[in-house]
Write a structure and sequence with these properties.
- The strands form nine sheets. The protein has an eight-stranded mixed β-sheet, with helices on both faces. Strands 14, 15, 16, 17 and 18 form a five-stranded antiparallel β-sheet that branches.
- The model has no long low-confidence stretch (mean pLDDT 96).
- It has nine helices and 40 strands.
- It is mainly β and 642 residues long.
- Strand 3 and strand 4 form a beta hairpin.
Length: 642
């Protein structure tokens, strides 16, 4: 017989430490010399990224501590490793240099010069170049401002020495890829104020006998067309994901610029290029291609121009599928299974785990996400995933409705997926529902849906989240007096903007946020180069729309704040720097509004350390308990100031 206890106060076997342990996340997967390799983020090691490979069912570590395979290109990082099976080339976080590790002797040697200033030169998106070289994007600081950055494409000698510059066609670039015959190189480029999901160009240049590049030519893309991935098919053709018709579809591109859509569909087979080296498609041969259709694996057949879903129980694939052992290998998760490295047999659909599922609590404590579509007052669709409270040991008193937390994803050009989330289960198993909202601007629904947010950030996202929360209250699913909103980065902005413009929520958790829009620009100096003109599209160009920046900045609307807020911030964040949260908190002092501000040494954008993840989650739970009036046994209270 379940115990009767108020929502939010239920005891749960899912602890914050379990969530942190589940943060050992595979990434940057590829197949090398017949084996599956991947990078692996480890919260218990301070967020260090190692590199491992699967051999006969065992996982072998290839990059021991203290090496950390990360880089700062675009601050979000790019592909950090490359190998031929005997040597490993990788970027190291501490010095941002490129290193080579001999996998036989274990010796590690830096092959790029030491920069004159800390992290003054960084490399990313490592690719095979001509014999004896690795090709990459190089990023160099040129002045004191966060936006003082220059980039070029370089060839790095494996024997070490000064990298050789190959091209600098655009302000932003992906690493060049060498054609099979070695005669051409191809890459993507774009310039401010565009983001890569707005408009990019697919460039090709001739590679001369001395290894230099000729003048580049643009084969596809443009100011209103996004190209998010390219791969050489043959020496005269490329495969590319681009969206001239409003959807990222797979195209064949010839060297004279002829473009053929291989399977026209209102389907997103690509995504937002946040990290250089992301991959959504890989050729299978015979006119068939593995693709990620809104994050799910499918096979595209050129002959029938069709998309066939594969392994539908896996509802999110990381952007690194690869061909392996007659099928596809990748990193995937589903509603009832945590993220793992998996192999899918394309003939039978059989899924085999190459990494074990982490220990999970019994299924009764894990909510299964319910995909739903809500609507705004204007009839606009708003997709969302509802994670209801779930705990077999407890039930709530008769007539009580559960508190709910609206989760606003980051980006804002991001999205949610219907997968098992221990982060969410930490709350739902205690009786707090979660709903993850894909507000206007999210990827996965075509360019038109993305562009609902154009110049309307702080309006559309706020209204869409509020519409979902309001619908849950109206149908009797959630307690309208106990609705909170949470989010990090751009989701932190949406959370703060919601708290200062609508009366839907009683509390907000705001993580590493944007709170003051005008300083979060290139001229304002409080963000990095990659996103320093992002607000041109999200808010409007300056100085013409300066008034919007003032009106939509949460820091300028503190007098309208609807309730208590919890701010969580990494102190080494170069994307949403801590001074934004500091000014917001300073403005809150003396207002009488309960608030807490927790900062974390050594954390950048997003939390990677186990102890940070634990503190952040427990503080968030305690915060909701204090605001909504339920006990949180075993979790210390947050010091709410006024």
């Amino acid at each position: 017989m379940p115990k009767i206890a108020p929502y939010g106060s239920w005891s749960s076997p899912i602890q914050a430490a379990d969530v942190a342990s589940a943060g050992v996340v595979p990434q940057w997967l590829d197949v090398v010399d017949g084996a599956v390799w991947w990078a692996e983020a480890r919260p218990a090691e301070g967020g260090r990224v190692s590199l491992v490979r699967s051999v006969d069912g065992d996982v072998e570590e290839l990059l021991p501590a203290p090496w950390n395979a990360r880089n700062r290109v675009h601050e979000y990082g790019g592909r950090p490793w490359l190998s031929d099976g005997t040597t490993l080339v990788f970027t190291n976080w501490t010095d941002q240099r490129v290193h080579v590790r001999d996998l036989i002797s274990g010796e590690v040697t830096p092959i790029t010069p030491e920069p004159h200033e800390h992290h003054g030169i960084r490399y990313g998106d490592l690719r095979p170049g001509r014999k004896g070289e690795v090709w990459a994007v190089r990023e160099r600081t040129t002045g004191p401002r966060r936006t003082d950055i220059a980039r070029d494409l370089v060839a790095i000698p494996l024997t070490g020495g000064e990298p050789r510059s190959l091209s600098a066609s655009h302000h932003f670039l992906t690493a060049p890829q060498l054609s099979p015959d070695g005669r051409h190189a191809a890459w993507l480029g774009w310039n401010h104020p565009a983001m890569p999901w707005d408009g990019t160009e697919l460039c090709v240049a001739e590679v001369h006998e001395d290894g230099t590049f000729g003048a580049h030519h643009v084969l596809a893309g443009g100011p209103d067309v996004s190209v998010c991935q390219l791969e050489w098919e043959e020496s005269g053709t490329l495969l590319a994901l681009l969206d001239p018709d409003g959807w990222w579809n797979l195209h064949r591109v010839t060297l004279d610029g002829e473009l053929t859509n291989l399977a026209p569909a209102e389907a997103e087979l690509g995504g937002a290029l946040w990290k250089l080296g992301a991959r959504w498609t890989v050729p299978l041969g015979g006119g068939r291609h593995a693709v990620l259709h809104s994050g799910r694996l499918a096979v595209l057949d050129e002959a029938t121009r069709s998309l066939t879903p594969v392994a539908p129980e896996l509802t999110e694939w990381a952007t690194s599928p690869a061909v392996f052992d007659g099928g596809v290998v990748g990193i995937a998760a589903g509603p009832r299974r945590d993220i793992a490295v998996v192999h899918v047999d394309l003939g039978t659909g059989t899924v085999t785990d190459l990494t074990p599922q982490p220990p999970l609590p019994p299924a009764g404590y894990l909510p299964v996400p319910r995909a739903r579509t809500f609507h705004t007052a204007d009839g606009e669709p708003v997709p969302a995933y509802v994670y209801p409270p779930a705990n077999p040991e407890f039930t709530a008193p008769h007539g009580e409705l559960p508190p709910y937390v609206v989760h606003a994803h980051g980006g804002p050009t991001g999205r949610n997926y219907p997968v098992l989330s221990l982060d969410f289960a930490y709350f739902t198993s205690r009786g707090i529902g979660v709903v993850a909202v894909d507000y206007g601007g999210s990827t996965g629904y075509g360019r038109q849906f993305r562009e609902r947010l154009r110049e309307r950030w702080g309006l559309v996202d706020v209204a869409d989240c509020a519409a979902v929360a309001g619908a849950l209250v109206a149908e009797g699913t959630a307690d309208g007096e106990r609705i909170a909103i949470r989010g990090g980065s751009a989701g932190g902005f949406t959370s703060a903007a919601s708290m200062t413009t609508v009366r839907t929520y009683s509390a907000a958790t705001i993580k590493f946020p944007i709170l003051d829009l005008e300083p979060w620009t290139g001229d304002g100096g409080e963000t990095h180069d990659f996103e320093s003109r992002y607000l041109d599209g999200l808010i409007g160009p300056l100085p013409e729309t300066a008034e919007r920046y003032l009106k939509r900045s949460p820091i300028n609307n503190i007098g309208a704040l609807a309730g208590p807020v919890l701010l969580l911030q990494g102190l080494e964040d170069e994307i949403c720097p801590p001074e934004q949260a500091e000014r917001f908190v300073e403005s809150l002092r003396g207002t009488g509004i309960p608030h807490a501000h927790l900062t974390f040494e050594g954390e950048q954008h997003g939390f990677r350390k186990a102890d940070t993840i634990v503190t952040a989650l427990e503080s968030e739970l305690a915060f909701y308990g204090q605001v909504f009036g339920f006990a949180t046994p075993g979790v210390p209270p947050v010091d709410l100031r006024r």
